[in-house]
Specification:
Structural class: alpha+beta
Strand content: 15-25%
Radius of gyration: 25 Å
Number of helices: 9
Largest sheet: 7 strands, mixed
Oligomer: single chain
Distance between the termini: 70 Å
Number of strands: 23
């Protein structure tokens, strides 16, 4: 006797209205248990893996990969009847503890120790039994492979020590093990949405591409290499398309048929556009700049890199700037506040959820470090690394991008001196960190080569006046000029 139930696309906790179905993790006929991952979706802010609320046998996949559907749309049906229930394995060997893991996935601990769960489905109170993958044999990985890959949040654009830092919890919590399906067909290939789009534009079948990325993931280079080889064998030139970091597609100028390409505005780009327009035309922005000698910060960064406590942590001037922001808001709380239009109130935050703008293949994301002001320098450094690494992998969860109180954007990584950043909606201040350049600088009565940088602050003039904005920017510059000044706050 059958008992067919539909799993409808849920709101994963970010006011979701629609999402693109990226990859099915199951197929018709598969037996699943509660909380088995069945599909990966792309929302406006992140890639999210959805667990099944039912146990039974998959009877139908209602939405094909690549389609965007509204919240509440049925996406899969599961037969939960007695016959299907009997087929569900009662004992399944658990994966080894040192298996490679994915941090921050739905249903597993997220960075910082939070548990990220799907709205409507609470954390499990009993141990879950996982079904074995029918088409793959997991391989063990070393404990080191289970750690989140750490990368520089912002690479230095000059010989000046540029660093990014992230705060990591002293002991990383255990996280859910996610087995990766093999690349056996287009529906099961591992490839990020931009790579899938590139393959589609080049007419490449992903199932025929040899993957060189981590855990069998197909990369952009893999697709382009495959396309080039296929064309060479055909004896004709292949038009090339280049993706420029989420800003659009650019065609080969020698191919007039590809001179223009329309790119759908969706996902991160759509939300960013709406948010920036709303912010720019709602909050009256004021921007101020200050240029100063940051040589002492550069020297401090060099010393920290050699300190035993920071031996395994990447350190950069961004750490000092982030720390300076957390200290400076104590004297100017208006910069770390929210304008409540409905209540006609200014909400001063007594905590700092520090956002770091990160350029990712999916577009601009601003995940934030919760309670950054309460972290030690090392914890803040580790947090910055983890936050940006997860963002660049496209695994930022909704909780990581919500609740921010102040943002830093590092335009210096692109060799830019300063800018007029637009406020992140709901915040009253954003700081742009410029490149650190070696320049001639007046020191006393002589001119010496020093490391010089510029900070620019945009703030909401409804919340703060010029006095508050200027004092905050001056305080941050004071600490970056001489980190010892941080003891005065």
């Amino acid at each position: 006797m059958s008992d067919i139930k539909q799993f409808k696309l849920p709101d994963v906790g970010e006011g979701l209205t629609e999402a693109e179905l990226v990859t099915w993790k199951v197929k018709v006929g598969d037996t699943i248990v509660v909380n088995d991952i069945v599909v990966e979706i792309e929302t406006a802010k992140s890639l999210v893996e959805l667990p099944s609320p039912f146990a039974g046998t998959v009877t139908e996949l209602l939405v094909e990969e690549g389609r965007t559907v509204d919240v509440g749309t049925p996406i899969i049906t599961v037969d939960t009847g007695p016959a299907a229930e009997a087929a569900v394995p009662t004992e399944v060997p658990r994966p080894p503890e040192d298996r490679a893991v994915e941090p921050g996935l739905i249903g597993g601990p997220a960075p910082g120790g939070r548990t990220s769960v799907l709205v409507g489905y609470g954390p499990r109170t009993t141990e879950a039994k996982r079904r074995p993958r029918h088409s793959s044999t997991p391989t063990d990985a070393s404990p080191a492979a289970a750690q989140v890959g750490v990368q520089r949040a912002f690479a230095p654009s000059t010989p000046a020590p540029d660093v990014d830092i992230a705060d990591a919890a002293p002991a990383a919590p255990s996280v859910r093990v996610v087995s990766s399906p093999p690349v056996t067909g287009d529906s099961r290939v591992l490839a990020k949405p931009p790579v899938r789009q590139l393959a589609k534009d080049l007419g490449v079948d992903l199932a025929t591409v040899t993957a060189t990325g981590a855990r069998g993931t197909i990369t952009r280079d893999d697709v382009e290499r495959h396309a080039g080889a296929a064309t060479e064998s055909m004896g004709r030139a292949q038009p090339t398309l280049e993706a420029r970091s989420g800003s659009g597609w650019y065609a080969d100028p020698d191919n007039t048929s590809l001179r223009e390409l329309r790119v759908p505005v969706r996902g991160v780009r759509k939300v960013t556009a709406q948010a920036m327009v709303a912010s720019a035309f709602t909050a009256p922005h004021v921007t101020e700049w200050v240029t100063f000698d940051a040589t002492r910060t550069v020297k401090l960064v060099e010393r920290l890199r050699g300190h035993r406590d920071f031996r395994d942590v990447k350190v950069s001037p961004l750490l000092v700037v982030a720390r300076a922001v957390c200290l400076a808001v104590r004297r100017t709380p208006e910069i770390n506040a929210t304008w409540d239009e409905a209540a006609q109130e200014i909400v001063l935050k007594r905590y700092v959820n520090l956002g770091i703008a990160a350029a990712t293949p999916r577009g601009l994301l601003v995940p934030n470090i919760k309670n950054a002001d309460a972290l030690s320098a090392k914890q803040l450094a580790v947090s910055l690394d983890q936050l940006t690494a997860v963002a660049r992998e496209g695994r930022t969860q909704p909780a990581d991008t919500s609740g921010g109180t102040f943002t830093i954007t590092n335009v210096g990584v692109f060799g830019i001196d300063a800018g007029t950043p637009i406020l992140n909606p709901g915040e009253s201040g954003i700081l742009a960190m410029g490149v650190i350049r070696r320049q001639p600088w007046v020191v006393g009565s002589s001119i010496k080569p020093r490391w010089v940088t510029t900070l620019s602050l945009s703030f909401d003039h409804r919340v703060a006046d010029g006095e508050q904005g200027s004092r905050f920017l001056s305080d941050v510059a004071s600490i970056v000029t001489d980190p010892g000044n941080g003891l005065l706050f």
